Amino acid sequence: MPNAFRAARDVIIRTHAWDDAVAFYTSVLGLEVVHRSEKLVGLEAGAFRLYVEKGENHGPVFEWLVPDVPAAKHALLARGCTVVEEDASAPRCYIRDPYGLTFNIGQSDARCGGRGGLCL
């Protein structure tokens, strides 16, 4: 694999019941809101940061950070992975591996402020 994959702390879920989900995670689980925009709320969960996004449910999405997203995508597709969703404006490239795990491959360099994770 031409990229060194490194796990980010970010896990994303998407739901049409966005207000209910945010209320659940903040009031029932007591998670602190650390990011809020029109379509996305970030919640600090300790070992990971949970993002709740408005939209069609796709199950939890983990994130791997790589120095070269196109090269990583190419290598993953050659090894039997499939693209689930792609949006260069997000940036987002959701991949499902042959074993059922869905993850985003994200840029690990300065395009995300040098910190990795979601580019917010």
From TrEMBL:
Top-level division of the source organism's lineage: Bacteria
A Pfam entry, by short name: Glyoxalase_6
Domain Glyoxalase-like: 11-105
Database matches in SUPFAM superfamilies: Glyoxalase/Bleomycin resistance protein/Dihydroxybiphenyl dioxygenase
Protein name: VOC family protein
Organism: Dyella monticola
